[in-house]
């Protein structure tokens, strides 16, 4: 089994707010992230796939295919977007880094035929990242 | 859905690797430059990883403000700008980054209640890093 990781970057804005909470609860739980006008990050995404090395190609996965799937399914949908307003997953869920990692996993899984997805890692900043391994 | 959140922190501290139970020659042979009697320092990069179910309502494994507050108070206040050899946990144990990992893991494990601690990782320099997950 060999693991291959591909990085990508996207920039997006968001704010944290749950309509089920009162204004005070939203402010207390989410702090500055609750500013309704939003704020943004340069996100770094790492997608790790795993598999046996194909004896003919020497690849775990065709990197070009992986890159294309990541661009089409993730970057086109998230890059330079306001997550709360433009990305359907976040019409109902708070766009935290945790939920972003889960959403990216769910976008990639059905499209990655050749390789098995191992991990999605999303850096919100260089000092904060979330890993999602598809755990229930 | 279970996710794992990692936060990075930095602190600076000095230490000297030395074990009183060994002779001067043994200490020098084992610890080399790190045995210099006046000590030396590092900018330690600390990573704390917590894991657990993502809360449906907040979208969080745990509130980052809680984790930051805990680490600032219990870890950074304790270790930043300190001489590790003078701290209680290193009176007996040599303040290697292995032992520092274990000490920090134990403090977070015992005191931080809002999420499950997965792992502590410390970069002593850009070239050396150490991890402890309670094994």
Could you outline the blueprint of secondary structure elements for this entry?
The complex is a heterodimer of chains A (136) and B (135).
Chain A: E1 2-14, H1 23-30, E2 39-51, H2 63-78, E3 81-82, H3 83-86, H4 89-92, H5 97-108, E4 116-125, E5 128-132
Parallel strand pairs in A: 1-3
Antiparallel strand pairs in A: 1-2, 2-4, 4-5
Chain B: E1 2-15, H1 24-31, E2 40-53, H2 64-79, E3 82-83, H3 97-111, E4 116-123, E5 129-132
Parallel strand pairs in B: 1-3
Antiparallel strand pairs in B: 1-2, 2-4, 4-5
Q: What does this molecule look like?
A:
The complex is a heterodimer of chains A (136) and B (135). With 136 residues, chain A is an alpha+beta fold. Chain A has helices at residues 23-30, 63-78, 83-86, 89-92, 97-108; strands at residues 2-14, 39-51, 81-82, 116-125, 128-132. Chain A has one domain (2-132): 2-Layer Sandwich (Tetrahydropterin Synthase, Chain A), CATH 3.30.479.10. Chain A contains five helices and five strands. In chain A, strand 4 (116-125) and strand 5 (128-132) form a beta hairpin. By secondary structure, chain B is of the alpha+beta class. Chain B contains three helices and five strands, in the order E-H-E-H-E-H-E-E. Chain B starts with a strand and ends with a strand. Chain B is elongated. Chain B has helices at 24-31, 64-79, 97-111; strands at 2-15, 40-53, 82-83, 116-123, 129-132. Classes of the chains: A alpha+beta (136), B alpha+beta (135). Chain A binds chain B through residues 16, 18, 20-21, 29-31, 93-99, 101-102, 126-133, 135-136, and chain B through 1-9, 49, 54, 57-61, 63-65. Strand 5 (128-132) of chain A pairs antiparallel with strand 1 of chain B.
């Amino acid at each position: 089994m060999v693991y291959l990781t591909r990085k990508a970057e996207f920039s997006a804005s968001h704010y944290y707010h749950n309509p089920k909470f009162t204004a005070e609860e939203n402010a207390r739980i989410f702090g500055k992230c609750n500013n309704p006008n939003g704020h943004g990050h340069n996100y770094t995404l790492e997608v790790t796939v795993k598999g046996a090395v194909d004896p003919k190609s020497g690849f775990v996965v065709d990197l070009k295919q992986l890159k294309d799937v990541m661009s089409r399914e993730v970057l086109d949908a998230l890059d330079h977007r306001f997550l709360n307003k433009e990305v359907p997953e976040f019409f109902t869920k708070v766009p935290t880094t945790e939920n972003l990692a889960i959403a990216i996993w769910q976008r990639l899984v059905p499209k990655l035929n050749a390789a098995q997805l191992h991990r999605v890692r999303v850096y919100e900043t260089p000092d904060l990242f979330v890993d999602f391994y598809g755990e229930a | 859905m279970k996710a794992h959140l990692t936060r990075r922190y930095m602190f600076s501290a000095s230490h000297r690797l030395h074990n009183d139970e060994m002779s001067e020659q043994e200490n020098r042979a084992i610890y080399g430059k790190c045995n210099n009697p006046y000590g030396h320092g590092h900018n330690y990069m600390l990573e704390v990883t917590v894991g657990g179910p993502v809360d449906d309502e907040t979208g969080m494994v745990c509130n980052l403000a809680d984790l930051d507050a805990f680490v600032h108070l219990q870890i950074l206040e304790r270790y930043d700008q300190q001489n590790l050899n003078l701290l209680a946990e290193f009176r007996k144990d040599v303040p290697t980054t292995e032992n520092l990992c274990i000490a920090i893991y134990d403090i977070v494990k015992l005191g931080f209640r809002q999420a499950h601690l997965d792992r502590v990782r410390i970069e002593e320099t850009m070239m050396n890093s150490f991890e402890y997950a309670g094994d």
